């Protein structure tokens, strides 16, 4: 990594209180929740401070921040500005897909059998309408493209799949899967939360129709923030599953509201709801400035270089076993590994303020832009000590 880029990551690290040596934490759990940095906390404080008095226009700056979210969100995933909408979490965009796509009784949706539940239950709810849901069986904890091809039937209309699998960090071959869906006439829906912000992605190049991502993990925003993408070519095919007064354009004129004939936005904004959580809108816009300033490509390289240190350590010994894929194109910023007493190791790491996650019988680490080599060195030293004491 070039020194100028490395310097930027060092400066970014200093923005996070959790990296303060006096606190004693090593935070390796971005895949659960990302910590907020100082600039994000400052805009939250400024908003709530002004909310004590309410003597200024809060709408204009908030709507400007929403535009920044749409712009920055589009840039992160290779979309166009009008294809991006503000959502409150990943499930928000997935529900737009499940209840907006023109599915009929007898149609079928395919899911992976190792999906996070937020990408399962919106689709299962469609069974009440006579729409079938079928799970594609995984192989050794990874989604299998060949089994997908075998599973596609005459009434299959949708595949909904994670960009990156939550428990082992497996990055699906989204472009190849998207190509198959486009050729077979399937809508391709992607749960992007575990890859968005730290992995390269172009939704157009990958034939994605709908993409949804919360922003509280890798995008380092408060809980209750996120965005969604709807491919322009399918926008008018979608039913509007829910609507709000801000699904139409009031031209910021909120003093003349007796108009019930305004058309819905000719953009992804038609699927947004009012009123927005202004404080979190400002916070998310600020967090996206940090992410886009560093660049997902640089973040991807930074995170994987840190994980390489742990991989080298584990592969040099016999106590721990990696459960993530180490295939170059299938790697992400998540690494999972296990051992005979993985739960004890996880608990011991937490006692030492090394914060990871325990998922599906394995310890999951997910470093991000605020971590450095010293963090990984301390993790490795702890793992080694715990292995020797077992």
Q: What would you call the shape? A: globular
Number of strands: 13
Radius of gyration: 22 Å
User: What percent strand?
Assistant: 5-15%
**Quick one: CATH class of the largest domain?**
Alpha Beta
CATH homologous superfamily (4th level) name of the largest domain: Type I PLP-dependent aspartate aminotransferase-like (Major domain)
Question: How would you sum up the major sheet?
Answer: 7 strands, mixed
Distance between the termini: 37 Å
The largest beta-sheet arranges its strands as: 2-8-7-6-5-3-4
The whole-number mean of residue pLDDT values reads: 96
Helix and strand succession?
A: HEHHEHEHEHEHEEEHHEEHEEEH
Oligomeric status = single chain
Uncertain runs are none
- How much helix is in the residues? 25-40%
What can you see in these coordinates?
- It is a single chain.
- It is built from eleven helices and 13 strands.
- The chain has 390 residues and is α/β, with parallel strands linked by helices.
- It folds into two domains: 122 residues, Alpha-Beta Complex (Aspartate Aminotransferase, domain 1); 247 residues, Aspartate Aminotransferase, domain 2, CATH 3.40.640.
- Strands 2-8-7-6-5-3-4 form a seven-stranded mixed beta sheet, with helices on both faces. A four-stranded antiparallel beta sheet has the order 9-10-13-12, with helices on one face.
- The radius of gyration is 22 Å and the shape is globular.
- The chain starts with a helix and ends with a helix.
């Amino acid at each position: 990594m070039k020194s100028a880029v490395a310097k930027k990551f060092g400066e970014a690290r200093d923005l996070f209180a959790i990296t303060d040596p006096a606190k004693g934490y090593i935070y390796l759990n971005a895949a659960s929740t990302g910590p907020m940095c100082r600039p994000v906390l400052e805009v939250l404080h400024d908003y709530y401070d002004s909310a004590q008095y309410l003597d200024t226009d809060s709408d204009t700056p908030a709507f400007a921040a929403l535009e920044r979210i749409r712009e920055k969100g589009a840039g992160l995933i290779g979309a166009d500005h009008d294809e991006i909408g503000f959502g409150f979490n990943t499930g928000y965009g997935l529900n737009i897909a499940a209840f907006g796509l023109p599915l009929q009784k007898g149609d079928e949706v395919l899911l992976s059998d190792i999906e996070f539940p937020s990408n399962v239950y919106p689709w299962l709810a469609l069974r009440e309408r006579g729409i079938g849901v079928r799970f594609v069986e995984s192989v050794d904890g990874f989604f299998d493209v060949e089994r997908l091809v075998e599973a596609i039937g005459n009434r299959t209309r949708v595949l909904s799949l994670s960009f990156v699998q939550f428990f082992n960090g497996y990055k699906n071959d989204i472009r190849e899967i998207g190509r198959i869906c486009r050729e077979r006439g399937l809508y391709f829906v992607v749960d992007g939360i575990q890859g968005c912000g730290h992995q390269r992605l172009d939704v157009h190049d990958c034939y994605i129709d709908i993409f949804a991502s919360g922003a509280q993990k890798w995008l380092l925003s408060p809980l209750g923030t996120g965005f969604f993408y709807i491919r322009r070519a399918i926008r008018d095919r979608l039913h509007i599953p829910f609507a709000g007064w801000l699904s139409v354009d009031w031209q910021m004129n909120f003093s003349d509201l007796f108009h019930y004939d305004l058309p819905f936005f000719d953009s992804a904004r038609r699927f947004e709801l009012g009123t927005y959580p202004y404080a979190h809108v400002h916070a998310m816009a600020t967090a996206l400035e940090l992410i886009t300033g560093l660049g997902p490509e640089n973040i991807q390289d930074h995170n994987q270089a840190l994980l390489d240190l742990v991989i080298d350590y584990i592969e040099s010994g016999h106590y721990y076993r990696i459960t993530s894929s180490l295939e170059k194109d299938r790697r992400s910023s998540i690494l999972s590994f296990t051992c005979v007493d993985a739960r004890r190791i996880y608990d011991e790491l937490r006692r030492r303020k090394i914060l990871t996650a325990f998922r599906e019988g394995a310890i999951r680490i997910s470093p991000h832009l605020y971590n450095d080599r010293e963090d990984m060195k301390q993790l490795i030293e702890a793992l080694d000590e715990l292995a020797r004491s077992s």
